[in-house]
Amino acid sequence: MTAPRWDVLLTGARLATFAEDTPFGLIDDGALAIAGDRIAWVGRRAELAAAGHPPAVETVDLGGALVTPGLIDCHTHLVFGGHRAREFDMRLHGASYEAIARAGGGILSTVAATRAASEDELLAAAATRARALLADGVTTLEIKSGYGLTLLDEQKMLRVARRLGAQSGITVCTTFLGLHTVPPEFRDRRGAYVAEVCDHWLPTLAGEGLIDAVDAFCEQIAFTPEETRRLFERARALGLPVKLHAEQLSDQGGAALVATFGGLSADHLEHLDETGIEAMARAGTMAVLLPGAFYALRETKLPPVDSLRAAGVPIAVATDCNPGTSPLLSLRMAAGMACTLFRLTPDEALRGITVHAARALGLTDRGTLAGGQLADLAVWNVRDPAELCYWIGGNLLRQRWVGGRPAA
Ligand code: DI6
Ligand code: FE
Q1: Based on the domain organization, do 66 and 81 belong to the same domain?
Q2: Rounded to the nearest whole angstrom, what is the distance from the C-alpha of residue 57 to the centroid of ligand 2?
Q3: pTM score, whole prediction
Q4: Nearest-10 crossing angle of helices 107-116, 151-168
Q5: Could you tell me the CATH number of the domain that includes residue 397?
Q6: Most exposed: 119, 198, 312, 368, by fewest CB within 10 Å?
Q7: Does residue 325 line the site of ligand 1, with CB under 6 A?
Q8: Do the Cβ atoms of 114 and 157 come closer than 8 Å?
């Protein structure tokens, strides 16, 4: 794309573009031009003169630093009250996640804490967590509801997510997760709860512009495929995209179900089988791997990465940041864990937190360094892209650019 004017020209950059199938889409000694909030030109510095543009308003020499697209966390539960460190301790003493949930802990204990918190308290706590993600390169974030489980408390969570986007200056995509668990008020009336969520809350919250996508926890300890299908039918009628927590603890056929609705993604997938993989490949439903939950639950069943690759299902990686199963506040760390635990290559893991993560959110305007893409960038203190997966912790980020401007 040519632009009438370049506002900024970054030179002396190693560009991991993820726009090509070459390793990391790497361009050595590259240059990247920004016009307005968009990337105007990407290429080798040597080709710059031939691009025939007038000098940019400002030129910044990055001295050989690595530049990637801003990182995209496509699955988080960042808004919640309290924490669950005590359950962490209980699990270390042998209690299972399912047993804690069945005994009324688990998601329900976070529901109680989230209901008790004010909107401002939730925002302050979520903003602290968001700062950690941003400090490790994130420029787009998905946030799910699902710890309110009354109409007012789900509304409260989704408003907090929207406010967090406005105050942090990054894109926050919201997802309605009313079918997360059956709340205490409906303990013996789950049918009535599903009906309430599908027929009342979903259209109400959608009408208020609070929902970008719809998700459910399809699991033995949560909701059945039939209940999930009912939700997805309502979402489809409202024109909302769907995604699903699928095949995390058991094989419920959730991935195949979300694929029949042309879903954006099926997430977790440790127990995914070939039927589910084929359905995802046919529908273009992406796989989102969540190694933080695998790690925290000391899971041993691996997601079928080889079969996903063979079927050509694109793989994204996310933090799943939540107080129960994945208290993980670094997306870069999630990518590193996807390599170490799931044997993704660093190239796959980094595509998983950039271009594939964007597609898993239905976003085509970001995730690669290419002309016309949003100028959301991460500039790093390392030179080799694989280092972003290899270092565990550390302050690797030099600077984020959001919408064409350096971010604080
Ligand atoms: N995402 C979820 O929604 C559940 N597991 C997961 O990975 C439960 C989250 C929780 O226990 O709070
Ligand atoms: Fe989750």
Answers
A1: no
A2: 44
A3: 0.97
A4: 80
A5: 2.30.40.10
A6: 312
A7: yes
A8: yes
